[in-house]
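Q: What would this chain look like folded?
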Amino acid sequence: MISPGFHDFNGPLQLCNHANDSNPHNIYAFSPPFVRRGNDNDIPLFRRGFCSVRNYKLSVVCAIPQASIKNHFAPISHLNIDDSKNPSIETALILIRHGESMWNEKNLFTGSVDVPLTRRGVEEAIEAGKRICNIPLDFVYTSALIRSQMTAVLALTQHRCKKTNLCFQVPIIMHDCSKQAEAWSQIYSDEAKKQSFPVIRAWQLNERMYGELQGWDKQEISKRYGKEQVHEWRRSYDIPPPEGESLEMCSQRAVGYFKEHIEPQLQSGKHVMVAAHANSLRCIIMYLEKLTSCEVINLELSTGVPLLYIYKEGSFMKRGSPVGPSEAGVYALTKSLALYRQELDEMSC
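A: My prediction, written as structure tokens:
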């Protein structure tokens, strides 16, 4: 039976053909609700052996009507399923771990607790935006947690775009938790639709759920259980903390969502940014770089530091991570990205 909690929150934007549209290349979006940890009945969905991206998907599809949000955005009219085989397609993927959160600052286990950014986290997000401001974007994905959403939106305030007569596009955060929310957030101006792109929230990109460790000081937990035990919970691949998720369990949902929703966008020629969390991004990077379970547990991601990958011919190539105030001398830009930067500069003259 589907939990009532499915109807309480927004979920990931999914692409589909509208039932009344005869053109198979006109793609529209609808948003299923997602699972929450609202009460004790919801918690087992995150435990080993019971957590399945496939199960979530099937439950969600059965739980909601096949509603379209075609009035929010113009259809994505040039998605071609054969484009993934086109060797000329080259798209950018930006991954950003959220800026410092208030519990990062206090050294507390945060996990699935929804904690906002600190002042330093806000500054990190803005700085990240400056470093990626010349890289094209079509879609932005965040987790369902506010710290990743703040990071994405703050970074986008620095972004430049040459898709419209204006030198920017407006990010629109999707609100589809109810029919009323969907109706009230419709965009009726075709011009506004062209100047907008969706910010899609997905619980599958949430931070790893740390179970009974959430809210505790990390040093205090180390004293209680021992440093070796806490290190095993934090850095092993398949051992979860009490009532929490292992990295392997986090990978099932995060990588599953990436393969099903984000990678097809890259294959179709769209440029994507993902603002998420240390562990959900570790899982995605493990997939992108074909890391082993031993290699991924040693991967460290700094807050507010964007990573650039290029998707081409079915492969992901890492092009650097910034250490300075701009992308110059940091990212190994491809020829197409360099030309895009040049066109932006010419527009601003």
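The chain has twelve helices and nine strands.
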